[in-house]
């Protein structure tokens, strides 16, 4: 018998066995049903943190559970290795991004293996390796052939600190999502992916993603932003040039009294008169530094400036002054808005501020709106007025009739508009996939021939981080010959947005060693789509939308046959911890605090808010320290037990210690009964005591199975196992029921396997004497017959107050139950001398005796 539970020795032992036996190697061609489990792969930042531990523990529970249920599980791991953080870290540490990334991958791989996660490491890859990104370059060339990739001049989001372009989705509160530096607009030639070509399908298919959180689907629908309306032409007063406007409220067209242009609109400059140039220039400079999202919010002050020019309302010929307004964005619609102040609140506020005319064109039922008396815009329904031949129509009807009239007059057309814009994928950075394009003075833009792929990112460069990407200064990279005319040419020095790499990696896991293309279609059919994807909700409108787009592109290129990449999606919560600070030394790590004092200077420590674990605020726990002290099974158990996976987890040292004590308790439960349960041939007894414990055993199997399978409620599943362990300790007649005890302990060990696999395997093998492996074994099944209770404890009330309890057969009739309740000694004292008016029975739960 082993004296104590030694987590370190046991975990090292079983990790070695799993690796030697290749326990988690996935193969195609199995007769078992496939199950592809994937967590969003990590960026190799240096060391794993508790967020990693939690995320990957969640995934590992599901992967191991499905394997025990008999599924053929694919559970791969790799590295999202390109991107700006590697460059920034390389600058900070005076090293090369390639070296920094490679060393981090080695460190993090070792840490992940130390956690005992069930990955198929044979499928590992890093996106910074040419044997991965060569296929990404090929996908780009195929997209270029189909017009899904193109280059154009555009105003881009430029981060001066990172010296690169950011996609709209990467700008948060007008700041770079990576470094928090303020983003400024800049005109550049950029490569784009035509994601708008798939806007309707991306929107339509959100209704088919029943396994996704509704919050994520809502965010994607809003980002795609479909609107059905009209595109209307407003001719300038002084020329035949037209301003095109998209609106969903063509019913209000007769009430349009001025025009609002986005500050970025190309007509701003030509429409600004000489008298207005200074005022317009000052306004544009001011707006340039305003956050685009805030500009459109209801709370933000509506500001603008008159250009000095006018356009004409196409239905009544009225003269409309043209303003530049801060709440109009070039990114949506046409960048021009017909302003109807009586029926749009932003236009109303703007018109009041700048004393612009108002015309009511929709009257609500039973009211008479007068512009001078209005305190807010009327945005509801009503009947048309001041709209010539459309007067008297319901405004919803007028939307149709006015649209028809505009098409007949050839000054407008019915159309559909999307908020979604094409994905800008050019980045002026070094550490990324080179875009496979060559520029020739004679031939123009020339794709790199497939036979010359990959275009390899050179690593023999001096990387300082100054002046943007160093690729432009590397002649051996930039100078080349044109594939078409053999004349001198130069390579593209932009690299791909790192989200390109993560938009198709899940497909490459199905065939990581294939040398013939990005995806082996037959192998992809064996595994895709991913059955369960796990990651943060912060990727809802970036990675998750791009991955859906890429899946559809790869389908249309004939490389895959699926429409969507991920059948089910779980967005896990964050790991949070209370912050601590010292007046002298600032933020403190947990180990720098002792008894409420700073260990460096002895000052009182101020406790702050509970926030997401962050290195900058030092409210972090090193998983290595946790593993060294308690073992990785304890770390896994706490991260799974402390909160449901979709909720934030608050770090609690006492909770970690509690999980450690529980595992020790399980260990003792098995070994304290070791001699009793040695004979596996002994069947569970059928005495009342044995039946009661068996009922708890099989109830726990059912509870844990459904909690994992149906809802990922790992915390309640673990709580149920803890209750079973309590029942085992409380079972007094162990020696008379060795079969029941063995079944109960085997069940505990089996059910714990997905959560704490090392201790479970050790107990299963060494203490319980099994030769098979739990990791590839059978998940226990509950016996419905064992769930049937022989007796029930029924509460008895008198006039609604508990006065006694009776133990009765589970199948007792209602009449017999009433009699048992009335004749209970405790109850009898409270009804003696009283008249029983009524006896109410709630089957299986209680009896209420009503007396007077």
Question: What does this protein structure show overall?
Answer:
With 852 residues, the chain is of the alpha+beta class. Among the domains are: 148-194 and 423-496, no CATH class; 227-417, Isoleucyl-tRNA Synthetase, domain 2 (Alpha-Beta Complex); 575-612, no CATH class; 673-787, Isoleucyl-tRNA Synthetase, Domain 1; 791-851, Ubiquitin-like (UB roll), CATH 3.10.20.590. It has a 4-stranded parallel sheet with strand order 2-1-24-25, with helices on one face. The protein has a 4-stranded antiparallel sheet with strand order 4-3-7-17. β28 (593-594) and β29 form a beta hairpin. α1 (7-21) crosses α24, α3 (84-93) crosses α4 and α23 runs antiparallel to α24 (757-767). The chain is globular and about 100 Å long. The mean pLDDT is 92.
Uncertain runs are: none
Largest sheet: 4 strands, parallel
Quaternary arrangement of the chains shown? single chain
Terminal residue distance: 65 Å
Strand content: 15-25%
Radius of gyration: 34 Å
Kindly report the CATH topology of the domain at 227-417. Isoleucyl-tRNA Synthetase, domain 2
Overall mean pLDDT: 92
* Major sheet strand order: 2-1-24-25
CATH superfamily of the domain at 227-417: Valyl/Leucyl/Isoleucyl-tRNA synthetase, editing domain
CATH architecture of the domain at 227-417: Alpha-Beta Complex
Proportion of helical residues: 25-40%
Number of helices: 27
């Amino acid at each position: 018998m082993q004296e104590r539970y030694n987590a370190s020795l046991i975990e090292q032992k079983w990790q070695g066995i799993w690796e030697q036996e290749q326990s988690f190697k996935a193969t195609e061609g199995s007769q078992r049903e496939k199950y592809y489990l994937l967590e969003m792969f990590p960026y190799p930042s240096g060391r794993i943190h508790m967020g990693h531990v939690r995320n990957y523990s969640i995934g590992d529970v599901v992967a191991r559970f499905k394997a025990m249920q008999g599924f053929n599980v694919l559970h791969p791991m790799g590295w999202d290795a390109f991107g700006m953080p590697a460059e920034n870290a390389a600058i900070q540490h005076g090293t090369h991004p390639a070296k920094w990334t490679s060393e981090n991958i080695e460190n993090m791989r070792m840490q992940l293996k130390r956690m005992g996660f069930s990955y198929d490491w044979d499928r590992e890859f890093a996106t910074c390796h040419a044997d991965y990104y060569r296929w990404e370059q090929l996908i780009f060339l195929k997209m270029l052939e189909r017009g899904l990739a193109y280059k154009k001049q555009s105003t881009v989001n430029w981060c001066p600190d990172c010296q690169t372009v950011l996609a709209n989705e990467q700008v948060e509160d007008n700041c770079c999502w990576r470094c928090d530096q303020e983003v400024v607009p800049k005109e550049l030639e950029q490569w784009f992916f035509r994601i708008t070509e798939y806007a309707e399908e991306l929107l339509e298919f959100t209704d088919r993603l029943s396994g996704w959180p509704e919050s994520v689907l809502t965010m994607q629908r809003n980002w795609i932003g479909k609107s059905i309306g009209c595109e209307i032409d407003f001719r300038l007063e002084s020329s035949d040039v037209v301003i095109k406007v998209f609106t969903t409220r063509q019913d209000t067209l007769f009430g349009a009294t001025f025009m609002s242009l986005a500050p970025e609109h190309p007509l701003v400059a030509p429409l600004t008169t000489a008298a207005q140039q200074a005022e317009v220039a000052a306004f544009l400079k001011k707006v340039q530094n305003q956050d685009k999202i805030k500009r459109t919010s209801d709370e933000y002050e509506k500001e603008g400036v008159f250009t000095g020019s006018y356009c004409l309302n196409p239905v009544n010929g009225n003269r409309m002054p043209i303003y530049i307004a801060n709440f109009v964005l070039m990114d949506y619609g046409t960048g021009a808005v017909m302003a109807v102040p009586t029926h749009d609140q932003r236009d109303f506020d703007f018109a009041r501020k700048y004393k612009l005319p108002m015309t009511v064109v929709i009257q609500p039922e039973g009211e008479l709106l007068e512009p001078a008396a209005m305190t807010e815009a009327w945005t509801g329904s009503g009947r048309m007025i001041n709209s010539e031949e459309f007067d008297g129509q319901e405004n919803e009807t007028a939307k149709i009739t006015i649209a028809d009239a505009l098409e007949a007059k050839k000054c407008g057309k019915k159309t559909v508009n999307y908020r979604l814009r094409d994905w800008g994928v050019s980045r002026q950075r070094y550490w990324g996939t080179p875009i496979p394009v060559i520029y020739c003075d004679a031939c123009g833009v020339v794709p790199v021939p497939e036979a010359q792929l990959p275009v390899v990112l050179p690593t023999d460069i001096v990387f300082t981080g100054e002046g943007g990407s160093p690729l432009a200064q590397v002649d051996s990279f930039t100078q080349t010959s044109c594939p078409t005319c053999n004349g001198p040419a130069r390579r593209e020095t932009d690299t791909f947005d790192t989200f390109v790499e993560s938009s198709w990696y899940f497909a490459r896991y199905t065939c990581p060693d294939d040398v013939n293309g990005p995806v082996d279609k037959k192998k992809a059919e064996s595994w895709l789509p991913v059955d369960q994807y796990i990651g943060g909700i912060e990727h809802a409108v970036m990675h998750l939308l791009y991955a859906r787009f890429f899946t559809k592109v790869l389908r249309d290129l004939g490389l895959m046959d699926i429409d969507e990449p991920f059948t089910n999606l779980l967005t896990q919560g964050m790991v949070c911890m209370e912050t601590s600070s010292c007046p002298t030394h600032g933020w403190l790590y947990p180990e720098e605090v002792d008894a409420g004092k700073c260990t460096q200077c002895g000052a009182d420590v101020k406790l702050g808010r509970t926030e997401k674990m962050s290195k900058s605020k030092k409210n972090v726990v090193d998983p290595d320290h946790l593993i060294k002290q308690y073992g990785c099974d304890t770390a896994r158990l706490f991260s799974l037990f402390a909160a449901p996976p979709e909720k934030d987890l608050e770090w609690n040292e006492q909770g970690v210690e509690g999980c450690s004590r529980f595992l020790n308790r399980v260990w003792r439960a098995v070994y304290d009964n070791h001699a009793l349960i040695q004979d596996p041939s002994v069947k569970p007894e059928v005495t009342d005591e044995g039946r009661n414990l068996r009922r708890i055993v099989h109830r726990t199997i059912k509870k844990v199975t459904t909690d994992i399978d149906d809802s990922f409620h790992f915390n309640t599943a673990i709580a149920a196992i803890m209750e079973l362990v309590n029942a085992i300790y409380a079972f007094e007649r162990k020696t008379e029921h060795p079969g029941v005890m063995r079944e109960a302990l085997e069940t505990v060990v089996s059910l714990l396997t997905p959560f704490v696999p090392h201790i479970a395997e050790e107990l299963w093998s060494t203490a319980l004497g099994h030769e098979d492996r739990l990791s590839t074994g059978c998940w226990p099944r509950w016996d419905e017959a064992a769930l049937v209770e022989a007796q029930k404890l029924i509460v008895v009330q008198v006039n609604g107050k508990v006065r006694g309890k009776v133990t009765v057969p589970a199948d007792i009739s209602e009449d017999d139950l009433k009699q048992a309740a009335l004749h209970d000694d405790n109850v009898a004292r409270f009804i003696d001398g009283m008249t029983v008016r009524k006896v109410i029975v709630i089957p299986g739960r209680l009896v209420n005796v009503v007396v007077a």
